[in-house]
Amino acid sequence: MTFEKKKSGEKIRVLFIFGTRPEAVKMAPLYLALREDARFEPLLCVTAQHRQMLDTVLEIFGISPDYDLDIMKAAQTLSYITTAVLTGVETVLKTCRPDIVLVHGDTTTTFASALSAFYQQVPVGHVEAGLRSFDMSSPFPEELNRRLVAPMASVHFSPTPANRENLLAERIAAPIFVTGNTAIDALSYTVRNDYAFKTSAVRGLFPTDRCILLLTAHRRENLGTPMRQIFAAVRQVAEEFPDVQVVYPVHLNPAVREPAHEMLDGLQNVLLCDPLDVDDMHNLMERAYLVLTDSGGLQEEAPALGRPVLVLRTETERPEAVRAGTVKMAGVETERIYALTKELLTDAPAYAGMARAVNPYGDGHACARIRQALLYLFGCGEKPVDFQPEP
């Protein structure tokens, strides 16, 4: 689909669509960047694939949606989310008639929104395009979602040169801009030296001389035995290193909460708490010594804050951080997770090597590059210079 050139003084109407907390965190700074520019008319549609966690992000960034599909319901399935978003977004598109729809990453909201826009012949811009794990089963269904959006998108905003190469290998013909990741931009809104934690249990940990070990584990493919193996490793570390304080914001899924409490309750240096708001989470990450996670976003955010990451997965769609040395793949086996964690707690040179590694995901100017790319596509500005990670 082509981009209609704008006349002088004519605004570019951009419809943002997202529905989950990770999308909101990464799209909020881009929405704000366009809202501050008189050449744009940004609009926001939220699907509320996740309701409460999405709303807290909107509140933190001071954003109100123009359209709210409010689709979340108990025991929702992927099929339900897909159809609800597909039909709901169709109505929004017919109402607001945007020049372009922006979607993010790999959620079911992203896939269904892109498909709905494609059906309505509205150009789709894919933010965080080109990440690949090359394993359709992990992350599931995110790997498939990303691949399905790619041929429908009219423009791709890839965080890294490697992401662009993935798209070119798939013979994607639409324009590709290398921008860095907007996740890095988001940190400038949330991380502060004088930050006061809202969650009392976390606030009560500071000041502390203990090493904070931040844990997140929730991915669908880790449920069951892998999750229990992760918790066994964390328990072993906590028992062996009493000067380490583990903080685990536990996902609301009962399949996560039940084994977490069964295996980690009763340890004096393990705090199990409810999920944290994004500003609490970012500031806790900034104060952490080490991050253990099966999340994708934390693999980008923690290195930007100089925090080493052990990835609790067998694969990653973000291999740049592994090559840069900011991240190590720990897998899901107890022995390896324990050994790598112990190494970073006891081997100062090994820790320093990861903490000082270059972050390949961005320099905090991804939103500015995407904004300039949109101006260029609609005939209102020069082509932006691609982001180049430090060697």
UniProtKB/TrEMBL annotation:
Its EC number is 5.1.3.14. This is UDP-N-acetylglucosamine 2-epimerase (non-hydrolyzing). It holds the Pfam family Epimerase_2. GO terms for molecular function: UDP-N-acetylglucosamine 2-epimerase activity. It comes from the Bacteria. It is an enzyme of class 5 (isomerase). Keywords: Isomerase. It comes from Ethanoligenens harbinense (strain DSM 18485 / JCM 12961 / CGMCC 1.5033 / YUAN-3). Signal peptide: none annotated. Residues 33-374 form the UDP-N-acetylglucosamine 2-epimerase domain. Belongs to the UDP-N-acetylglucosamine 2-epimerase family.
